[in-house]
User: What shape does this take?
Amino acid sequence: MTAQHASALFPSATVLGYPRIGRRRELKKAVEAYWSGKISQAELQGAAEAIQLATVGRLAELGLTGPSAIPGTFSLYDQVLDTLVAVGAVPSRFGTLHDADGRLGVDAYFTLARGNAEQQPLEMTKWFDTNYHYLVPEIGPETEFSLSSERVVEEFALAKAHGTVTRPYLVGPVTFLALAKASDGAPEGFSPLSRLDDILPVYTQLLEKLAAAGAEWVQLDEPALVADLATPASELSAAVGRAYAALTAGAVGAQRPAILLSAPYGGLGEQTAAVAASGVEAVALDLFKGALPSDAELSAWAAQFAGKTVVAGVVDGHNIWRNDLAASAAKLDSLRAAGERHGFALAVSTSTSTFHVPHDVDEEVQLDAELRSWLAFADQKVREVATLADHLADPASAKDAIEEATRVIATRAQAPGVRRPEVRERTSALTDADFSRSDYAVRTQAQGAVLDLPPLPTTTIGSFPQTAEVRGARARLNRGAIDAAEYEQLMKDEIKRVIELQEELGFDVLVHGEPERNDMVQYFAEHLDGFDVTVHGWVQSYGSRCTRPSILWGDVSRQAGPSILWGDASSCSAITVPWAAYAQSLTEKPVKGMLTGPVTILAWSFVRDDQPLAETANQVALALRDEIADLEAAGIKIIQVDEPALRELLPLRRADQAAYLDWSVKSFRLATAGAADATQVHTHLCYSEFGVIIDAIDGLDADVTSIEAARSRMEVVNDLESHGFGRGVGPGVYDIHSPRVPGQGEIEELLATAVEHVPARQIWVNPDCGLKTRGYEETEASLRNLVEATKAARVGLTVV
Ligand code: MET
Ligand SMILES: [Zn+2]
Assistant: This one.
């Protein structure tokens, strides 16, 4: 057994992180007000501090009382960006963002996140298998590292001044570099992880400052260790060894806080040995997604952690179902026994940060009380963790709470709507034929006869800017201030405006603009049985952007009853048909019908955990298949089924990926395979790491696929080329995540790159994603440039 470190004891209960957007999205409001010049930097700072202090107060109230039990996981925008500015790793393309004192201030921080007139922002991509997007560091041989922001120290000092010693959080050095991309100028094959030795001194310096400020523990987050990334596993292990040898070299207390290395989102697998061998004082393991070793292997596994604290993440931080406390207590009991034999201490935690779930179920008073009793949001999870810590201290004290959880979970299984025979009969009767369309060649011909499209057809991804009027109309409908007929008219007016705008701009394939959709998943959830929606259940998606995932708790089908909208037409159970049909009635050009695909509906909802995802996906797919049939019957010739989340649910371990891709691709095919040959099926995916799942995308068998490409400067066309992707594809030429208007010349260049790599007959021209969050002014200017650039690109183009 190694010597016990002279560090403070780790608290018995903690969470790995907490929502930072505020219970009423106060951070979103403050940050956006700052961006638009409505509040000063000091006011923004005041709002940020108020959220941090409210969090500390709330977590203490919920039972995180010991020193260092409360994580300092606040962020103004993104935790990877926080770490990037702390170590000063500004990509050289931004020039000088540091001030005269070598600091990166708030404006530099937001420039990296949002870009400026000359520079695109940092690329954004999904954080592990979640719907959270982080900013991707760009690291090259030229990147200079220097301590450039002490925000994490200041945040710690703020809480301390108010009486609480928190546990500061940073993305660990291995994960920070493993998630970085090579900078533009870096030589071929350059690996950001090769800069590890250069970044470590800055972390050491920061740890020293934290210790000086009184921090007893720091949390270094290393989720890269639970995923199979491009970096070989042996290199990651070696990096963990080097990094934590350096970071633990100083004495705890005087030179650094004790270190909690956290590994959320899955099991450490073969990285366990490297982590256990490192000198860190505590390790947080995801024991919800990851598993405890079998009884036979437990002892050898446990022996590795001698002298440390194992922080057992037994409460899922990533979904909203009430924890099976009895099962968690059993895991903890066997861990405790192992810990007693092998000399490690034990603490209880969530498996991941809870910022993937909303704040508090008790806010959702409109939900059925029974459904509410099945759920645990962040605050409830804190209580669950505290209960389990009580169990470890004194089993009798937690007995009632554990039994209550067992009882509630049992009632859920029997509740009406959870299993409906008519839905299950349909999914169990499916055969292979239900999953396939005719050959692509046959379809292209049939579609060509119906659609008369120019080369490089232009279109958008579906949504147009959601104006304050549109959102206001929906709020008034919900309040009862206007009736359904009035609301319907307002939406129709908006659709008409959007159709006229697209005609005027010269688009080839139009959209109705999706004004009636508060959210692309929630809208469907509201029209399907088996779902419920929340009022305050916001979670951060990126920066100030939040989504409100729906709750998929029962068997899914289209609702049988009439909708409150569309008078007589409502006797059918259609979700989108009347809006699409209305839009089509206004123009000769084809209007795309817009659906959200089954995988995305699952990924962006909180999904039932009581059956395989494949079964749930097929239920949703059948509902969409019914909708497609109704759209065709209403004269819609192009139908887009968005699957922006296909990549997101991809398991982090390679060994699990094939099974996922099989059911996810099949569910999309099940949704779309009922379409006639002449109906052109589109899909939309919004991320740029296309290469990873290109076979799956091919497997979707969509006629046209639009994807993100502008932010990553068309890198995706290389993947398309090397794969020999043969169907229609629209690599986005306008990054809608930033307010920047792309110039016509810039778009022409992107298109030139695209047609160099992919046959022009396959190319579509479109933005990266929907325009919902943009303002009209910048959108119109950007779309005008897009259409004009396309016209220029068509000149002299030979399409074969
Ligand atoms: C996140 S993907 C968005 C697709 C949707 N059709 C839209 O345009 O908003
Ligand atoms: Zn998108």
User: Anything to note?
Assistant: Residues 445-794 form a domain with the TIM Barrel fold (CATH 3.20.20.210). The chain is about 40% helix and 10% strand. Residues 461-463, 514, 520, 594, 642, 644, 684, 686, 769-770, 772 surround methionine (ligand 1) (CB under 6 Å).
